[in-house]
Amino acid sequence: MNLTNPTEKFVANEGSLLALPAREAKPRKRGLTSIIDFGPDTFGWGGSESGIRNVLECAADYIDYAKIFALNPLLVPNATMQQAIRCYKDFGVSVYAGGILFEYAWRRNDLDGMVRLLRSLGFSALEVSENCVTLTREERMQAISSLQRQGIEIVYEFGAKDPETPMKLEELSTIVDDMTELGIDYITLEQSELDLLAATSLDEIQALKDSSWFDRILIEADPYRFPQQHATLIEDFGADVNLANITLGQALRLEGLRRGVGRAVGYSLFKNLPA
Asked: For position 2, what pLDDT does the model report?
């Protein structure tokens, strides 16, 4: 994923004499947070400009990317979706359409129609995933290359939502190499793949962490397991682990967890303070 964040215009608590432990500011390369916008939902109001703006006025500093959920580009009224996309961009958040839209268009053999839809709504980026479809390497590379030639930036998602066998790091490494060849910097990883790998081989989890390309992986956390799972991911992989699938309503609290704020991380920021 090589989406470009505009110059950051919103700086939280700028100039304060009392400050939390610092994190790299946007545009950053590590510690990325990618949110998922479900639309009007109990996870946090999204989908419309007013709901999004309310969140971003507090948390835009901490959100790097925003994914529009599944087929919401087909469900939400066009004008509302256009306003929502503009709002994200105005706050320096790169926004892209979720991979199920790609998969639906692929099954209907209508990628061109999908591109026209993306352009009409104001999207410049799209996730390519393989949950409901299976692509050969040639199909994957050709589809992504074709979309890129039409000016669509690509986010690639690796893994299945309900894997039956543990993923092989060699396969993920090959995908990383392929995406590098296509000029894509980041790859999202389904949390379910990580869960199954952890249940079968902790050595493989350590090998993943030690991989030279791990900083290019965004782990898709489970919103229903917030904040415990997210705190565990921070404990296992560090405060600057790249996390995706964060809901609008969780973004601010997640930034707190990264900095040691909250019961889920035992208010760990106090560990480095004088008694």
From this structure: 55
